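ingest -> validate -> predict -> emit
validate: passed (alphabet ok, no gaps, 355 aa)
predict: started
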Amino acid sequence: MDGLFVVPSAIYSVITNFKKRDKLSLRMRVYYPNPPEGVIQRLQAAVDPGIQVHTGEKIGDYEVLIDGRPAEDLVMAPSLHTLIVPYAGVAGPTLELLIKYPHISGHNLHHNAADTAEVAIALLYAAAKRVLPIDQRLRQDDWGSREEDCKAVALEGKTALVLGYGEIGRRIARVLVAAGLRVLALRRSGSGEPVDGVEMHPIARLRGFLPLANVLMLALPLTAETQGLIGPEELALMPKGSILVNIARGPIVNEEALYNALKTGHLHSAGLDVWYHYPEAPQETPGYFRAPENYPPTPPSDFPFRDLDNVVMSPHRGGTSMDTESRRVAALTKMLNAAAKGEPIDHKVDLQSGY
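emit:
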């Protein structure tokens, strides 16, 4: 037909989808009930124009919720399609909500993976070299620890077993390879070709590899399958004088068995950033951002780990540094921009595996 311009179907589709994405972006509302101080302003300034980030009192409707432990009424917003847990891991009650409301896509953040991996390495070397007891003696002007080098462990040439090969485990493994250790990584997805010098194996072969583990690094999520994964029998399989570092979750390792293995000297030492008891904070306080006065004195375990000089204790701060909130904002910005454009969002929660 003369004078009539026909738009090819492929081009029409692109134009239509672009308009849909643009319309979605202009309308997208985000509700972030309990952000760390200053994050809302930084996040609002960083996301694409048209994405509205709300906090404080609940708003009527929203497409995205940012909350690690949301109450059920928050996930019942009519337009909600995405829940973002603003840290690694997914709490049991949150996972239950995602299962109950399958139309909501759950995601979590891995913005602090580098910080957590660095703390794991720091705990390992502090434990292996007995940094804390030596530091305490020298603070008393006692130089006698110079003659106790035999109590320190040399790591180069030893074998490290890394449980969990995600964002954190991969970083830990790379550092250990560079430090001259043989590194074995166990993961749920099974064996594969070595990656960057790391040997890959299925976690089902755990017991077969524990007798080789001079160093055991735990960097896997807490699920029904991993709770109590390392118990008395598993610790007994490790070589005498080995080192355990846990920056995952406390209950992955049997509490009493770990204490006994350290007290008897079967384990040379341990670096622990995760525990069995945590202080309770007021209900309105965000679970990952509490003021110091909201931490009542709370023993981290039923067993006196504090009395052992071969344990380096850390109060679950592995993912925290002066860069944490900047990295959180960057990760959230990427997710929200993707959601507004209808693009895939990183780190989708697998409801079957629980993380």
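The longest strand covers residues 182-187.
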